[in-house]
Amino acid sequence: MVGKRVTAADGREEDGTKVGLPALDLSLAFPQATPASIFPRSVSDYYQFDDLLNNEEQSIRKKVRAIVEKEIAPIMTEYWEKAEFPFHAIPKLASLGVAGGTIKGYGCPGLSITASAVTMAEIARVDASCSTFVLVHSSLAMVTIALCGSEAQRQKYLPSLAQFTTLGCWALTEPDYGSDASSLRTTATKAPGGWHLDGQKRWIGNSTFADVLVVLARNADTKQLNGFIVRKGAPGLKATKIENKIGLRMVQNGDIIFKKVFVPEEDRLPGVNSFQDISKVLAISRIMVAWQPIGISMGVFDVCHRYLKERKQFGAPLAAFQLNQEKLVRMLGNIQAMFLVGWRLCKLYESGKMTPGHASLGKAWNSRMAREVVSLGRELLGGNGILADFLVAKAFCDLEPIYSYEGTYDINSLVTGREITGIASFKPAALARARL
Ligand SMILES: Cc1cc2nc3c(=O)[nH]c(=O)nc-3n(C[C@H](O)[C@H](O)[C@H](O)COP(=O)(O)OP(=O)(O)OC[C@H]3O[C@@H](n4cnc5c(N)ncnc54)[C@H](O)[C@@H]3O)c2cc1C
Fold first, then answer.
1. How much distance in Å is there from the Cα of 405 to the middle of ligand 1?
2. Start and end of every Acyl-CoA dehydrogenase/oxidase C-terminal domain (predicted)?
3. Helix ranges restricted to H, 83-234
4. Is residue 204 within 6 Å of ligand 1 at its C-beta?
5. Are 357 and 283 in contact (CB under 8 A)?
């Protein structure tokens, strides 16, 4: 679609064919421009981070980078603009061999947490929507089944999820409980042979098409949190796509309604009996989310680096201007620091020393630094910085939901703040006093 000439205002080509959306004719933008569909080579690895990775981590990084650049870059703008998921690309994503990440057995790759994180960044470098699709499927749905499921559930569900022949989603957030997710109200009531789920979920990625929905609900008797595996098409289950998002537009986020949805006892996750039980899942997923801003920033830097050499103003490439060089260097510095934070987080996890505060600081700080990177990138591309075809505008928008999901910047800061001060400040002081 990129580069096709569209002549009519309604998106019709000269021969009258309707092409969906009017595409940018890049030769009109400026003749030397290379669109992000032809992805630039990676030039952000200034401090030679490959030296920090073992052979397995280096080789999967290289493999994922090559596949995503070849298979996802050419289609991403079109699908992002249409706000549709590119289902035909699922076999390509399956060929990355990353679903299940650190899970061993059941057809999963059993990667190190560092390898898993680095691949997440490599997918996000090209397209953040695809990385979020993989993250929800793998680091939330699959990891919950692996860590909190029974052996029978692991054997039943993980192999096809690992191949992407079935797809997963993970439902915690509700319309009235976002940051305050542990207060969720969806109920699980005991019924003969199983449970009835009633309530609502919001923002659930992949939920409009997922075969396997991992759902967190409050046990009506114990009032504790329990986990359930709900199958696509269960009577009483309805997922509706949330429209008009400005970021991660390919990701299909849904509002879910549960009306007396029956879940057989064999699909209750025996390892989820309180909110604490999902903290081991969130520990892994938060590391993965901390690596998404690293990948997004790397991609934006790579595109800007090429663009500044291709475009000339005042008789010189944009790369020759001091102000532009300072911005590029600031972006590069942020990326080096973000990578080191992400890498250290993985090492802390691997050695069993990572705390919730460590993971939250990594997620919060990396997403804050990345906001500066994408914003500088947007400036550097001038007017073309608002066109999705040059990646930067798309990445700029995609970072916003990442800044807010998996705990907002503020909530993650408060998790770390509680850890370093010993004082929880999630509830306003007046409210906390009133409840004393
Ligand atoms: C694109 C996208 C994908 C998502 N995918 C999923 C998914 O797959 N599964 C899932 O379960 N959820 C998902 N979420 C939900 C996500 O985790 C929540 O949006 C997030 O936790 C924030 O909740 P909220 O949007 O309700 O914001 P709110 O909780 O309403 O917060 C609004 C603002 O108030 C601030 N705030 C709230 N409480 C405090 C406090 N105590 N102190 C200081 N500031 C505070 C917040 O930081 C924020 O700035 C997704 C969200 C998005 C946008």
1. 6
2. 278-418
3. 90-94, 113-126, 128-134, 143-148, 151-162
4. yes
5. no
Residue-wise pLDDT for 297-309, tens only, equals 999 999 999 999 9
Tokens for 389?
């075809």
Which residues, including other chains, have CB under 8 Å from residue 386's CB and lie 6 or more apart?
378, 393
With a 6 Å cutoff on the Cβ, whether 411 touches ligand 1 is yes
CA 141 / ligand 1 centre spacing (Å): 19
Span from the CA of 112 to the centroid of ligand 1 (angstroms): 29
% pLDDT > 70, the chain: 92
Please report the atom of ligand 1 found closest to the CA of residue 136: 8
Ligand 1 nearest atom to the CA of residue 201, by list position: 11
Q: Which residues contact 377 (CB under 8 A, 6 or more apart)?
A: 300, 301, 303, 304, 331, 385, 392, 395, 396
For residue 407, the CA-to-ligand 1 centroid distance in Å is 6
Residue 428 Cα: closest atom of ligand 1 = 41
Q: Could you read off the pLDDT of 99-151 as tens digits, one per residue?
A: 999 999 999 999 999 999 999 999 999 999 999 999 999 999 999 999 999 99
- What is the pTM assigned to this prediction? 0.94
What are residue 174's DSSP bridge partners? 177
Asked if 114 and 347 touch (Cβ cutoff 8 Å), the reply is yes
Cβ of residue 336 lying under 6 Å from some atom of ligand 1: no
What's the chain's average pLDDT?
A: 93
Structure tokens at 127: 């397209």
Q: If you measure from the C-alpha of residue 306 to the centroid of ligand 1, how many angstroms do you get, rounded to a whole number?
A: 35
The reply to whether ligand 1 has any atom less than 6 angstroms from the CB of 404 is yes
| 404 CA distance to ligand 1 middle (Å) | 6
Beta bridge partners of 168: 212
Atom 42 of ligand 1, nearest CA residue: 426
Mean of the pLDDT values across residues 384-404?
Answer: 97
For the segment 152-199, what is each residue's pLDDT rounded down to a tens digit? 999 999 999 999 999 999 999 999 999 999 999 999 999 999 999 999
Q: Phi then psi for 235, rounded to 5 degrees?
A: -55, 135
